[in-house]
């Protein structure tokens, strides 16, 4: 099963520091969610959304593993949204689907 979990600022600390406990039993993918400089950029962009009162950032989760991030690029305006995101470096959408299918979930 692939689903979205609302992303919170504290999740970035968990992505960057393996000693911190996970939220809701989630696992980091092998190699991490993303490189630290990229996480810094995504965190800054997500903070802009939250400051605008927009909860438009999510973790993409396959079963219990974070396999990507997605978010609105700018806050929604005029009833339209632009979404940005991607899967982790070691996971492609194809791998995620095959993994879920192998577990009878896709």
Overview of this protein structure:
The protein has helices at about 10-15, 35-50, 95-100; strands at about 1-5, 55-60, 65-70, 85. It is an alpha+beta fold. The protein has one domain (about 1-100). The longest helix is centred in the middle third of the chain and has 16 residues, at about 35-50. The chain starts with a strand and ends with a helix. The model is unreliable at about 100-105 (pLDDT under 50).
* Separate helix tally: 3
**Main pleated-sheet profile:** 4 strands, antiparallel
Share of residues in helices: 25-40%
Q: Point out poorly predicted stretches.
A: 100-106
- Domains (count): 1
Broad shape: globular
Strand content: 15-25%
Q: What letter string, H or E per element, gives the SSE order?
A: EHHEEEH
Task: Please state the structural category.
Answer: alpha+beta
Computed Rg: 14 Å
Average residue-wise pLDDT: 82
Strand order, sheet with most strands: 1-2-3-4
Counting DSSP E segments of at least 2 residues, the number of strands comes to 4
Distance between the termini: 6 Å
Question: How is the secondary structure organized here?
Answer:
Elements: E1 2-6, H1 9-16, H2 36-51, E2 57-62, E3 65-72, E4 83-87, H3 93-102
Antiparallel strand pairs: 1-2, 2-3, 3-4
Helix pairs in contact: 1-2
Question: In a nutshell, what does this entry contain?
Answer:
The chain is α+β, with helices and mostly antiparallel strands. Helix content is 32%, strand content 23%.
